[in-house]
Every structure is written in structure tokens, then in C-alpha cells.
Amino acid sequence: MARTLKSDKMLFWATLLLVAGGVVMVYSASAALKQSSTTILTRQLVWVGLGLFLFWAMMRVDYHQFRRPQVIWPLLAFTVLALVAVFFFPPRNYTYRWISIGTLSWQPSELAKLVVLFFTAALLERRMHRVNDVGYALLPIGIVTAVMASLIVIEPDFGTSAVLILVVTAVVFAAGLSYRYLFGTLLVMLPAAMILIASAPYRPKRLLAFLDPWSARFGDGYQAVQSFIAVGSGGVFGLGLMGGVQKVTYLPEPHNDFIFAVIGEELGLVGTTMTILCFGVIAWRGLRIALVAPDRFGSLLALGLTMMVTLQALVNLSMVIGLLPTKGIPLPFLSNGGSSLVANLAAIAILLNISQQSSPTAVGSLEARG
């Protein structure tokens, strides 16, 4: 594999800083849970080890391998089978999202986001000259995305399916999709989303609680209110690591979806700002890699992977501070759990691999423009 440049060091270190911070915060956030914090930490460290091994391996695999039909189609078939297989495993909190093997569990929906991006970028590389031809370019992408998103929705997991659709839409739009198709898609998705929200009784309640969480602070707005209290009580420097109060008996899922609230309470504005800056660096360097990628596939794939990581982070952060309704979307690299961690580390590794092969001319031109 020809390499003309070194990997993007800023992206590399921002990612590792988040992973290391995640291990520390998962241990702190789980200190008051019924399950031993040491057990949770040990399990998380196992996933970190697996994720970093995959990270190292994926950095050394030429990203062009992911556009080969011999790779894409088996991955698509395996992912669909895995998304169906989750319904044959015991549910957790009335949802079917995990394939459990011993003490470890895996969410196929995380793999689905990567595989759909491989398929979308590979197809658009060959057909983006006719990206507005519905049958030629848009229909295959629409079918694959719809199948994956539908299987994820019925788990049920509305948040992950929404992220998947938004990321794919962004990649197709970047490939040259006409505004009329974009607006048409949004017009179709809006009523579909409303129907999905109305199809489950808890979703309208959650939406109403989002509009006024304090009026439902003992019901559907409980998580949001406790999150506000945690973030607000941290002040500038926080209460100190392990010193948080909300995680003890008040804040549900402190080591999972609401770990940013624990960061806010224990590390204050300094900790939350550092966290946001790290995700900002990932967004900046990922988009830069997309601009200087040596080919269309690399450019579209880099854009999609960057969107996958940063959009998920944006949704989680917005949920914690009350800008979006509460959803079961983890904070990349920081929340407890292995599936999201491994998938996001794989995404960053592929970005770093693309950066190794970036066009020197494009890099020089971009640097010359400042």
C-alpha cells in the first residue's frame, strides 16, 4: 500500500484522550451501582483492549479493500442476519438490541452503520456522475439503508436508525444530490417519523417531557432534570473525580448515556469543554481528511465516518443538556459498552488510513489557503 503521508496525529491523540478519559469516567460513574465498579471497569478494559487491537489492525488495512464487492456483500449479508438474530436473544429493558455470548454483548446496529457507509461510498464512487438518477444511484442506496434502518427501528432503536439515515443522506448530498431530492426526502421522512413516534405510547410522552421536563420531573422528565442538576452543580472545576452526588441514587444510567452529566458534575466546565474540544478536533480533522483524500471513495467514506462519530456525539451531548429528547445513544469513546467503542475506533482507524494516503498536492493546496 503506497503511503505518502503520516497519519493525522491530532486525530489520533484526540481519540486516545477520549478513550482514556472514558475508562476513568466509567469507573467513577459506576461507583454507586449495584454491580461492582471493578467488574464494570474490567469489562470495559477488555473492550478497550479489543478496540485498540482492531484500531491498530484497521490502520494497516488499505481502505480501498472496503469498496470491493467481495467484501461489501458478505458484510451486508452478515449484518442483516445479525440484526435478525437479536430477536432470538433475551431482551433488555424490553428491547432486542444485543447478541450475548457469555458475559459479553454485541450490538449489530453499530456494525450496520459502518457497512452501509462502505456500500454507499463505493456505489457513489462509480455512479456519482448520475447521482440524481433515482433508479441508477439513489434506489440501491435507499433500499440498503431502509432495510438496515427498519431492522434497527423494530428492536426498537429509533435514535440509531435516525443517525444512520442522516449520515447516509449527508454523504449522498455531498456527492451532488439535487436540493429538490433532498427536500423531497425530508418531506417524506417527517411524516414517517411522526408515525413512528405515535406508534409507541412512550415516545409522545418523552417528547412532551422534553418540551417541559420540570413538569414531569417525577416521570418521563426525571432523567433530563437529574442531568441538568448534575451538569449545573459542577461549576467551573467540578466536585472532583469520584465526588459526584447525582450518580449515587438520582441519575439513571450514569455510566452509559448520561456519562457527560457525570463529567460536568465531577470535572466541571473545564472537563466538559475539554470533551467538546476533542470531538471538535475529530470533526475538523475528519473533514480535512475528506477534502484531501486521494479519490472519491476515500473522500465520501471519510465524510461519512466523521459524520457517524460526531453526529452521535452531538445528539448525546444535546440530550444531556436538554436540547434534544432523551434517547439511548451512547457518547462515543466515553460511555460504557463495547459495541459503540469498537465501531467508533474502527471508524477513526479508517480515517487515519485515508490520511496516510492523502494527496500531497491537495494537502499543500489546503495548507496554502490557511
Structural class: mainly alpha
Which runs of at least 5 residues are low in confidence (pLDDT < 50)?
none
Major sheet, described briefly? Answer: 2 strands, antiparallel
Mean pLDDT: 86
**Strand element count:** 2
User: What is the oligomeric state here?
Assistant: single chain
Name the helicity range.
Answer: 55-70%
Assign an overall shape: globular
Please indicate the count of domains.
Answer: 1
First-to-last CA distance: 29 Å
Radius of gyration: 21 Å
- Percent in strands: under 5%
* Widest β-sheet, arrangement of strands: 1-2
Number of helices: 14
Order of helices and strands: HHHEEHHHHHHHHHHH
Task: Explain what this protein looks like in three dimensions.
This protein has 14 helices and two strands. With 370 residues, it is mainly alpha-helical. It has one domain (9-368). A two-stranded antiparallel sheet has the order 1-2. The radius of gyration is 21 Å and the shape is globular. The mean pLDDT is 86.
Concise structural overview:
By secondary structure, the protein is an all-alpha fold. The protein is built from 14 helices and 2 strands; from the N terminus they run αααββααααααααααα. It has one domain.
Summarize this structure as a short list of keywords or feature phrases.
370 residues, globular, two-stranded antiparallel sheet, mainly alpha
Write the layout of secondary structure elements.
Elements lengths: L8 H21 L7 H23 L9 H17 L13 E3 L2 E3 L1 H20 L6 H20 L4 H17 L4 H21 L2 H10 L10 H12 L12 H4 L9 H34 L3 H25 L17 H19 L3 H9 L2
Antiparallel strand pairs: 1-2
Helix pairs in contact: 1-2, 1-11, 1-13, 2-13, 3-4, 3-5, 4-5, 4-6, 4-12, 4-13, 5-6, 6-12, 9-11, 11-12, 11-13, 12-13
